[in-house]
Automatic annotation (TrEMBL):
Belongs to the 4-toluene sulfonate uptake permease (TSUP) (TC 2.A.102) family. The chain crosses the membrane at residues 40-60, 72-95, 101-120, 174-198, 204-225, 262-278. The keyword ATP-binding does not apply. The lineage of its organism: Bacteria, Bacillati, Actinomycetota, Actinomycetes, Kitasatosporales. It holds the Pfam family TauE. This is Probable membrane transporter protein. InterPro entries: TM_pro_TauE-like, TSUP/Inactive_protease-like. Keywords: Cell membrane, Membrane, Transmembrane, Transmembrane helix.
């Protein structure tokens, strides 16, 4: 019973982060299952089966709060589903050991870019509102879907920073659209695992525990992301990407340097970046608000 409660709480926490920052449900949940001794394919299958329900609830909540661009959902979600099915099928036969550090290095670079861009420049205005082209979204969805299925997570870490870096969508709509399109990815990946593995290694009770926790958190996260200022949200997302991928690179590379000081320094820099973004946001908002004297003079 304690294991099921732990899994439900992990699902709740993972969905709260995923729904508000656009990533981390699969990474967090899969990491926990692997630590419990589950084999990679079964862990990824368990998480994706739970995600069918959590992403459906999350997408509905994001749509309710106006966080979804349906054109982006269709253009990234359909190729993402194809990539997820292929990735799920390949996971039983292929090793991703070589791809993991390369992917993490690319994502680390994107994370540093996103965090620095939103921290020091705020939300990019020049490209905001311009349509994202299909020739950009389709390959992005295909790659992200494949990595998501083979790595137990990757749809958000790949899709969210790439769309944020484009500067053409508000952060809340990036997160809402990525979360909503993930439903197609979860369904396709689950089908791929069921075709390749059947139900081998998948515990239905564990799936249910993850699902229940995620369903509770999904509407809360969709509401939260609508309230957070875009500049602060961008800095927060960038920090998550950096921390996650530095951890992966240190683990895969077998670095001899102590990891704790590295995490402490990164967390301090991340905290400083978010704090700077909050101050800058307040200054921008204060500058936009008319002063009392101006209002009085106008009257």
């Amino acid at each position: 019973m304690r294991t099921l409660i732990l899994l439900a709480l992990a699902g709740l926490g993972a969905q709260l982060v995923d729904g508000s920052l656009g990533m981390a449900y699969g990474v967090t949940s899969t990491t926990l299952l692997l630590a419990m001794g589950t084999n990679p394919a079964a862990a990824s299958a368990t998480v994706h089966l739970a995600e069918i329900g959590t992403t459906l609830m999350s997408g509905a909540a994001h749509w309710r709060f106006g966080n979804v661009d349906w054109r982006v959902v269709a253009r990234i979600g359909v190729p993402g589903a194809v990539g997820a099915f292929l990735g799920a099928t390949a996971l039983s036969h292929l090793s991703t050991d070589l791809a993991e550090p390369l992917m993490s290095a690319i994502l680390l670079g994107l994370g540093v870019y996103v965090m620095s861009r939103f921290t020091f420049r705020g939300l990019p205005k020049g490209q905001l509102g311009k349509p994202l082209r299909k020739r950009f979204l389709s390959p992005l969805g295909l790659v992200a879907g494949f990595l998501d299925a083979t790595g137990g997570g990757g749809w958000g870490p790949v899709g969210t920073p790439a769309l944020l870096a484009s500067g053409r969508m508000e952060p809340r709509k990036v997160i809402g659209s990525v979360d909503t399109s993930e439903f197609l990815v979860a369904v396709a990946a689950s089908l791929g695992f069921l075709v390749s593995l059947g139900s081998q290694g998948v515990d239905a009770v564990w799936v249910l525990a993850f699902l229940l926790g995620g369903l509770v958190a999904a509407p809360v996260a969709a509401w939260l992301v609508r309230l957070l200022p875009p500049r602060v949200l961008g800095s927060a997302v960038g920090g998550v990407i950096v921390l996650t991928n530095v951890r992966t690179l240190l683990r895969v590379g077998g670095a001899s340097v102590p990891t704790t000081p590295v995490y402490v320094v990164l967390c301090a820099l991340w905290t400083a970046a978010v704090a700077y973004s909050i101050r800058a946001h307040r200054a921008e908002r204060a500058a936009q608000e008319p002063s009392v004297e101006t209002v009085t003079a106008g009257v």
